[in-house]
Amino acid sequence: MNMRVIIWGLLIFALLLIVALPTVMLVAFGMLPGLVAMIIDRTEERSATFCVGGLNFCGVFPYLMDLWFGDHSLGQAIGQLTDVFALAVMYGGACMGWMLYLSLPPVIASFIQVMSERRLQQLRKTQRDILDEWGDEVITDADLGGDGLVLPQQDDQNVAAEAA
């Protein structure tokens, strides 16, 4: 990472700590499961990060709105973080993200497999229809090399002349 980006990031973080410490504290502790998902997700698509982090943020968001539109103080943020129900909602959203991340790929894979098997049945039916209409010569021509040309047969005189 570029040193300039790191310096700007630290500067913005320090400014947020000064201006909005309760918000930073609530987001930091509430989004821990999303941070863990980001650290352990090594895939290029970052699917676990988006599933877990997105639903984790959905669990943190109502309490963030209470903090912003209510008493934006350190005591209010600590009160929300020590509320067991609030933590259950925040971390429950992350749990739902993990459930989606772990359960949806097999379901989608089986759905795609069923669709491809149905497509294969349709193609085989179309192939049978073509064979009924055109005859078995279509298969024979395809077996010779795919160009449909049949090699000319030599007559008996040419075969005898070549043998001698």
Word description of this protein:
- This protein is an all-alpha fold and 164 residues long.
- The protein has a domain of 110 residues.
- It is 82% helix and 0% strand.
- It has 8 helices and no strands.
- α2 runs parallel beside α5.
- The N and C termini lie far apart (82 Å).
Mean pLDDT: 86
Q: N-to-C terminal Cα separation, in Å?
A: 82 Å
Helix fraction by DSSP (H/I, runs of at least 4): over 70%
Please tell me what the overall shape is. Answer: elongated
Number of strands: 0
Would you spell out the secondary-structure blueprint of this structure?
Blueprint: H1 3-19, H2 21-30, H3 32-40, H4 47-69, H5 74-82, H6 84-134, H7 137-143, H8 156-163
Helix pairs in contact: 2-4, 2-5, 3-4, 4-6
What distinguishing features does this structure have?
8 helices; 164 residues
